[in-house]
């Protein structure tokens, strides 16, 4: 049986400073929550290798997600009906010196709502909301995070 998939475009930035425009294949229903599958769901799954289509060559590759620093999303990849109780204003510096500003959407209980809790108790890949386009960040390549709400 063939499972219908939705194609979503993004730019993957690899650990060796290369980047590639790709398409992700998402299911209509997510396994871990209600609603459609998100690119973030794929990254935080137990699979080490992700099937992607190279946009330029139209070929399927199996990408090692551990070697991806960040992903630039072409469109927002959050569920439309989800409201986050808190958003943490941050500045992050990635290995290699790239700095991003934005907000982490937080779904943590009030007793675990600090930025350090969000970083320590969430899966490997984080969603960063930005005005210029959202990102998915691999925590392995985060050098540090500044809490900009305390400035």
Descriptive keywords:
151 residues, mainly beta, SH3 type barrels, seven-stranded antiparallel sheet, three-stranded antiparallel sheet, 45% strand
Please render the helix and strand layout as text.
Layout: E1 5-14, E2 19-27, H1 39-43, E3 49-54, E4 59-64, E5 68-73, E6 86-94, E7 99-106, H2 115-121, E8 125-128, E9 135-138, E10 142-147
Antiparallel strand pairs: 1-2, 1-5, 2-3, 3-4, 5-9, 6-7, 6-10, 8-9
Can you count the beta strands?
Answer: 10
The secondary structure category is: mainly beta
Distance from first to last alpha carbon:
54 Å
The name of the CATH topology of the largest domain is SH3 type barrels
Low-confidence stretches: none
CATH architecture of the largest domain: Roll
CATH uppermost class of the largest domain: Mainly Beta
Question: Roughly what percent helix?
Answer: under 10%
Radius of gyration: 15 Å
Shape: globular
Number of domains: 2
Give the biggest beta sheet: 7 strands, antiparallel
Order of H and E elements: EEHEEEEEHEEE
Give the strand order, joined by hyphens, for the main sheet: 4-3-2-1-5-9-8
């Amino acid at each position: 049986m063939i499972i219908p998939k939705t194609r979503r475009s993004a730019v993957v930035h690899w650990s060796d400073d290369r980047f590639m425009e790709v398409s992700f294949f998402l299911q209509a229903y997510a396994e871990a929550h209600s609603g459609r599958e998100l690119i973030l769901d794929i990254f935080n799954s137990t699979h080490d290798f992700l099937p992607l289509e190279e946009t330029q060559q139209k070929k399927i590759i199996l990408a090692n997600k551990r070697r991806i620093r960040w992903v630039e999303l072409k469109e927002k990849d959050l569920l439309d009906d989800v409201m986050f109780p808190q958003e943490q204003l941050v500045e992050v510096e990635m290995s290699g010196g790239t700095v991003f500003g934005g907000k982490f959407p937080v779904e943590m209980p009030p007793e675990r709502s600090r930025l350090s809790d969000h970083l320590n108790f969430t899966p490997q890949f984080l969603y960063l909301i930005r005005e210029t386009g959202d990102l998915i960040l691999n925590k392995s390549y985060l050098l540090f995070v500044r809490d900009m709400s305390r400035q």
